[in-house]
Amino acid sequence: MSLRNCNRCGVVFSSRGSRICPRCLQREQEEFEIVRDYIRKNPGATVAETSIATEVPVEQINQFVREGRLILSRPELQCQSCGDLIASGRFCTKCLAAMRRDLGRSQPQFQSQGKSEPTVGKGDPPSKRERFHSKAAIIRRQDR
After folding, report:
1. Residue 53: is it exposed, middle or buried by C-beta count within 10 angstroms (0-12/13-18/19+)?
2. 78 vs 13: CA distance, rounded Å
3. Structure pTM?
4. pLDDT tens per residue across span 17-63
5. How far apart (Å, rounded) are the C-alpha atoms in residues 141 and 119?
């Protein structure tokens, strides 16, 4: 845990990775529920209409959409790479496909430099043994 300033209200709080304090996080969740309920009752409403009706700022509604918590019925956001209109997330499908393709190309280069794929326990690649472990479990194993 570290101390940081809340991105919304500026108060200092003990963070566990969150960008906003617990009070603002609660307020954000309440705003999300208000927006979600409005959209359910008014399908097809634009971001501007929703903002006016719910008194939740347009920027906050757009953040919910970028996080994937909401999906617009009509694309209103811009892809952060090419600028095409999108309904949810940060990137359009074309840019996501290009990023995946480029990432796939970089992996063989990484391996050709003599670096091996990271492993997770007993030498198996992560795809064979994908598991999550708590920090306490890892420490117990190291103590044995």
Report:
1. middle
2. 33
3. 0.62
4. 888 999 999 999 999 999 999 999 998 888 899 999 999 999 999 99
5. 17
